[in-house]
Amino acid sequence: MRFSILFFTAVTAFFAVGVQASPVDSPEVNIIARTPYFHGNAVCYYPNGNYGACGWVLQNSDFVIALSPAHWDNGVHCGQHLNVTYNGKNIDGIVGDICSACAPDQIYISSGAFEALAPLGVGVIPVVWNFT
Ligand SMILES: *[C@@H]1O[C@H](CO)[C@@H](O)[C@H](O)[C@H]1NC(C)=O
Predict the structure, then answer these.
(1) Fewer Cβ in 10 A, N or C end of the chain?
(2) What CATH number did the domain enclosing 100 receive?
(3) Is residue 100 a contact partner of residue 90, using CB atoms and an 8 Å limit?
(4) Closest residue by CA, ligand 1 atom 10
(5) Which segment of the chain is annotated as a signal peptide (predicted)?
(6) 33 C-alpha to center of ligand 1: Å?
(7) Phi–psi pair at 67, nearest 5 degrees
(8) What single DSSP character describes residue 56?
């Protein structure tokens, strides 16, 4: 019985994070949001409707994140949301790809997401990011 309750809580937390539809500040979401913050460069990239390493098609306009090999962990973060902050602005992106050339805490973000933080021409920005 105790196991069932724990399992239900885990499943609920998983979906609460995956869907992100509700602004409700549930304890489950808080526990997961209390992950470390990483500091690295975010590089603008153009997935151009190709398949990402997570296995689905990525459009430039999607808010897509590509993780470095150091964070890739066999794709365990695919579909997970990332909060990316730059200069007082935030975007909510979804892990959809790997960035093989990235330094450990560096990320690639699709042009659509990049544009929400800085002009495209800037190309690279120093960001703070966390899994949510
Ligand atoms: C996103 O990051 C900013 C600062 O880095 C933080 O203030 C905010 O609470 C974060 N949001 C989430 C959902 O983690």
Answers:
(1) N
(2) 2.40.40.10
(3) no
(4) 83
(5) 1-21
(6) 9
(7) -95, 155
(8) S
